[in-house]
Amino acid sequence: MIEIRDCQERSVTVPDGGAPRPLVAVRYSGRKVGLYRVKRVGEVGLLLNHGGISFPVGTRLEVDDIQRLLPPGGLGRLSAMVVDNSPLGLRLVWCDKDSGEIRWLS
Which domain holds residue 32? Predict the structure, then answer.
């Protein structure tokens, strides 16, 4: 089993058994750039495994919740900003599509 923890320390366990981690589709400038495996999901943002494209801090992305992993109020496509790109993964926070201000899902 793989345990996924969100920012409020609630955890969601998904079967491991060789099954891959949950996925989200990532878009940049309106174009789909790929599927990224989810390490952690929460109301503030999410942590993704590194994918084929690595984005610098400050990059605005859109995340398609293709497997309904996000908290209530977050279904569909959400705007996000890269706040950390380290060996741990790609950390995104949710942001307002127009203003870029960080927002919480609830």
Answer: 23-106
